[in-house]
Amino acid sequence: MSTDLDSLYQEIILDHYKNPHHQGLREPFEAEVHHVNPTCGDEVTLRVHLRDGRVEDVSYDALGCSISQAAASVMTDLVIGKPVDDAMRIHEEFLTLMQGKGSVEPDEEVLEDGIAFAGVAKFPARIKCALLSWMAWKDATTTAQLEETPAEKTPVEETQ
Amino acid sequence: MEGLLPDLEVVRKDFPILARVMADGLPLVYLDSANTSQKPQVVIDTMVDHLERHNANIARAMHQLGAEATAAYEDARDKVAAFLGAPDRDEVVFTKNASEALNLAANTLAWPGERQVGPGDEIVITEMEHHSNIVPWQLLCERTGATLRWFGLTEDGLLDLSNADDLISERTKVVSMTWVSNMLGTVNDVAAMARRAHAVGALLVVDASQAAPQLPIDLAAMAEDERPDLLAFTGHKVVGPTGIGVLWGRRAVLDQLPPFLGGGEMIETVTMERSTYAPIPHKFEAGTPPIVEAVGLGAAVDYLSVLGMDHVHRHEQAVTAYALEGLQTVPGLTVLGPLDASRRGGAISFEIPGVHPHDVATVLDTRGIAVRAGHHCAKPAHQRFGVQSSTRMSSYLYTTPAEIDALVEGLEYTRSYFKLD
């Protein structure tokens, strides 16, 4: 029984849950979104700051289970500093992993700590938890890209 | 243990699913009955028999099967009427579920008719309602210009009645309240609320989705001014199938409300210009109804009546008391809602600081234990207690003390798995 459980709750996931990376809401940002999982009430407020086609920063405030919290932390590790196109490809790869019902072999080169979520794909009820912040990031990034063109625009943001 | 159903082991054999073996060969511990109850063999067999031998459309087919199907459907109405102690069997309206029953009430009260709600009128609900008894009234208020008000909750999860005289006034047209909370377990005093509502000429609507499975209900035995005006419940929580719910209403009130959905079966006569409507209950049953589901519900409430709702209630109270005691031995665990089993139903929501309810539910699930995690469609009540979500165990007539022990052990294991010590 605990083998199944251990495949879900990898040490990496529990570590990110206890010590989440890039947590908190920061400025500047071009887009802020609020996503919820209506079935369970998990929620995330997430900001994206892009510069010259790169993901400069992703900051967030999330409420939810260990899987959703850890996913937010791992996601920021993976996308911050990357060109938006590359980050979108990582997002696609993660989505494929989550939707693969446990049959997709994750590529550690691409997903790094994200491979720890491979076990989540076998728990249908938890897939949405792992995807919540990724979906929020994609949504915010798409909005920010519209804001960002032309690339040299410096964001001016109101305080708070 | 005092109060358990006699022959509990025999009763459990009526429910084939309780013999299910879960992943890793573990027995099922089903503690999610407030979400949906399991079904006894007699309900399954009755539905299969109806489909195999009596299936036809009702109230229109001029053949033997049509007559049998009609009789079976109307028999189910008689059985539900008996289950509720309804003063009149025609006061029982079949709907799709409890949500539809409550929406029927809230919609028809918004439309022109003797009971139409308008600007300046007030609708009063409570903070412990299921979303099904909040959203329809919000919609009614948005559509009519009426104002929505609500009773708050006390720290121990009871209705805060301190401002009742202010909340319920001559402006109040409808009071809608749950009988038993699906999250806090609180049992509300329907008779007292009915007296308050009736004193100002308002209707009392009762959401009995959690009460009907657990409490003996005898509407005819209630004093006239203590009886609700409309009452809703759903089939699948009373060991019946999904897809069937009930709206019971006083004849005088149902007669005053305009039709809800238009269509076949709800008419008296139709011309191209206008129609006249069938008397209750058919006035509110447009189109082919969920026939086999109604038949299944009839078998379900009969099953409960044979067990005896007094016995079912006593069993729930005994198991709930045992569960409250057991849960409180888990370090750090807090129960949301009243701690006195005699004042509550069988749904117990709780929190364990440091472990999210989803994670609790997942760990329990790997041990074959089914509970619910989340906001249980009662977000405002969670907000009231400053929690985003909770874990909920809910027992029923087939729940054993050993299953509660398994839950408590599972929670201890959860704590150690997440290294809370």
Jot down its keywords:
heterodimer, A: 160 residues, alpha+beta, Sufe protein. Chain: A, 6 helices, globular, B: 421 residues, alpha/beta, Aspartate Aminotransferase, domain 1, Aspartate Aminotransferase, domain 2, 2 domains, 7-stranded mixed beta sheet, 4-stranded antiparallel beta sheet, 17 strands, 16% strand
How would you explain this protein's 3D organization?
The complex is a heterodimer of chains A (160) and B (421). Helices cover 44% and strands 16% of the residues of chain A. Chain A has 160 residues and is of the alpha+beta class. Chain A has one domain (2-147): Alpha-Beta Complex (Sufe protein. Chain: A). Chain A has a 3-stranded antiparallel beta sheet with strand order 1-2-3. In chain A, α2 crosses α3 (66-79) and α3 runs parallel beside α6 (127-148). The model of chain A has no long low-confidence stretch (mean pLDDT 87). Chain B is an alpha/beta fold and 421 residues long. Chain B folds into 2 domains: 8-40 and 308-417, Aspartate Aminotransferase, domain 1 (Alpha-Beta Complex), CATH 3.90.1150; 45-305, Aspartate Aminotransferase, domain 2 (3-Layer(aba) Sandwich), CATH 3.40.640.10. Chain B has helices at residues 8-13, 41-54, 64-84, 98-108, 135-144, 164-167, 190-199, 251-256, 291-307, 309-327, 357-365, 379-384, 401-417, and strands spanning 21-22, 26-27, 29-30, 92-95, 122-126, 147-151, 172-178, 203-207, 230-234, 245-249, 267-270, 275-277, 334-336, 347-351, 369-370, 372-374, 390-394. The radius of gyration of chain B is 22 Å and the shape is globular. Chain B starts with 7 loop residues before the first helix and ends with a helix. The relative contact order of chain B is 0.17. The chains are: A alpha+beta (160), B alpha/beta (421). At the A-B interface, α1 and α3 of A face α11 of B.
